[in-house]
Amino acid sequence: MMKIDKDVIAENDNKALIGSLNQIDKVIAVMSGKGGVGKSTFTALIAASLARSGYKVGILDADITGPSQARVFGLKPDGLHSTEFGLEPVITRSGIKMISINFLLPNEDDPVIWRGPLLAGAVKQFWEEVDWQDLDYLVVDLPPGTGDVPLTVLQSIPVDGLVIVSSPQDLALMVVKKAIKMAAKMKVPILGLVENMSEVVCSHCGETLKIFGPGQGEKVAAEMNISFLGSLPWDQNLNEHLDTGRVEFYLSSRADQIMENILAQLPQNQQ
Ligand code: ADP
Q: If you measure from the C-alpha of residue 196 to the centroid of ligand 1, how many angstroms do you get, rounded to a whole number?
């Protein structure tokens, strides 16, 4: 067992063969136009739903400067272990393998102020030097936005499809257009758009309130000719699960349906 810190991650690049032992069937990357719309939440919910369906699942937290996967799954490992095959991912309570920069920082709140090349290097190593073994699906939490940082991450990992997360507040056509441009540049298919916080579940009566009016996401997806994968309401119960590190125990048929829709859109899975 060894403890590894970020300097090791930055320097250590003579293990290029390690990744070739991994068998990762499909890589799904989750992106958003800006921060705070629910990209990390959807990454976690999609992975949890896949794991519940019996798939072997991993999460690669590529949001290096704003990592949140470790927190929402309640993981606080004491350093990372390394085998002869690479870094061992940390395993969540429902069996999801995870790697995040959080596991390499002494304190959860330590800021990461690395610049582009170092960030890209870390993400590349998360892909190449982690002992993922066999996975059906690896879900990647991209850095927010459509700028250079997520683009660099996409260049470091062979992604099979992109899921765009949006909320009614930022559901401008421009954001989706930018995402489509980015995907085209990277030659990565867009699996579709999901809309978060499209409604609110009343914590008193449980009624769903459509405070932004109906079908915004569906409209934008149709205009841009991409699939609409579904929506989730703002739900205090989900928020509590996230805050207490129990996201994988949040059950939602709508989230499960989104996962099914994503799988149906993946190249090769299509009929
Ligand atoms: P991003 O990854 O896009 O920055 P997050 O997934 O971290 O966004 O979500 C931002 C905040 O909103 C978090 O505090 C999360 O707990 C909360 N949140 C996201 N989606 C929902 C939802 N559907 N219902 C309740 N809270 C949510």
A: 8
